[in-house]
Task: structure prediction
Amino acid sequence: MLPLHDENPRRGTPWVTYALLLANVLVFAHQITLPASLVETHLTRWGVVPCELLGALRHLGAPGSLPEVATLLTSMFLHGGWLHIGGNMLFLYIFGDNIEDELGPGRYLTFYVGCGVLASLAQVAAGPASTVPTVGASGAVSGVLGAYMVLHPTARIVTLLFLGFFITRARIPAFLFLGLWFGLQAVQGLAALSTHQAAAGGGVAWFAHLGGFAAGVLVALGVRSARHHRAPRWGRGGRSGR
Result:
């Protein structure tokens, strides 16, 4: 499944989403100008390397520990290739604007970064001994997807469906599209655990996707609950206004 756009009009201009898109593209543009021999060094220096991050957290305050902890932020803006950044930016562009509408610019930026950090920590927990750098915006974007599923479950996602050699378009409810997406991540994550791939590192950071998505769902449930309690009550029966 490949999402093309959603049928969910936004209320304002999503400046933070646009800024995040631009920042990711600019960082990737710099990355592709590097000599091939330096790209791996660049990703290792600024990506999250699980075993090194855990060592820095154990000795927080020691020389060199803070730059390593900072990779929880810098890693979100690095990508391993064109498909990697293309997929992440497509999902952020489609789903990010409505979540920015819901949270407001400041809270949305905090939410995005927080989901990205928690996503990286989930991946570290799945493979603490790994020496392979984890990079990409997918953990933070997964948080956006989790929030979207809770706050806009019935919004229609116009999607390309690949059925063998047959390709068609369909309008799929967000809860179904994103539920299937999450299910695929869970299956792939369990498969990685069974083959010890998560511990060794490499491939797709499935547990970053799962951790980011779960964080987004929890925040969105809190937002929905707060919205419900703020709604005015009419009459003695306590009926909530909408």
Observations:
- The chain has ten helices and five strands.
